[in-house]
Amino acid sequence: MRLTDDLYAFVWEGYENNCNSFFLGGSVGALIDPGHLRFADSLLDRMSVDGISLGDIRLVIVTHSHPDHMEAVPRFTEQGVPVAMHPAALEYLDQIGAAMYQWMGSDLPGIDGVIPIEEGPVGALDGLVSVYHTPGHEPGSLCVHWPERKALATGDLVFSGSVGRTDFPGGDHARLMAEVDRMSRLEVEHLLPGHGPVLQSEAAIARNYADMRAVFG
Ligand SMILES: [Zn+2]
Questions:
Q1: How far apart are CA 30 and CA 132, in angstroms?
Q2: DSSP-derived 3-state class of residue 155
Q3: Which pLDDT score is estimated for 14?
Q4: Between 3.30.930.10, 3.30.420.40, 3.30.70.20, 3.60.15.10, what CATH number should domain 2-216 receive?
């Protein structure tokens, strides 16, 4: 679904757990979080309704290594679509990924060819989008900022009415709240969380950050 201009949200509405996916269109061409493998075809169908095809995706950015955000990665790498994650997330997958995926009831996806990206403007997207390293939910968690559209995809850092859980291995609540604070200083009109509804006004986003500080800070 088109949110505004060339910004698209594919908010997950199914009963089973899966993440929201977002497409930053125009000259960017970035898909954020492809989700579970078994829902990848329905995501691609929903994207095609909005006129977006696999060929429009220049880069898939994965906000963190949990299966509900990235199990579908091979669906894209196998088609030659580059996928990027923070190096700490790749390291995390390497160290405890197999055990974590088993515990979450999924198979560890193949991540051959996944590109590590550090905090800063994303070169593969001509610097139009920046990623921020925002650990707390997972050591390699990323947020993706598109300044031109004042849009921020937060993965499982912050949601409408909640923040990411930190009871998984590598979780750190104090660090998560520090990153929530840091992200709250960016100019954002479209807050795009990994789960639940998107927030679409500066006032609603500011209120949400204030509530999160009061409840979880
Ligand atoms: Zn997660």
A1: 15
A2: strand
A3: 85
A4: 3.60.15.10
Of 1, 16, 4, whose CA–CA distance to 151 is shortest? 4
CA 127 to ligand 1 centroid distance, Å: 26
57-90 confidence digits (pLDDT tens): 999 999 999 999 999 999 999 999 999 999 999 9
Distance 138 CA to ligand 1 centre (A): 7
Distance from Cα 6 to the centre of ligand 1, integer Å: 26
Cα of 10 to ligand 1 centre, how many Å?
17
CA of 200 to the centre of ligand 1 (A): 22
Count of alpha carbons within 13 angstroms of residue 33, beta-carbon side: 31
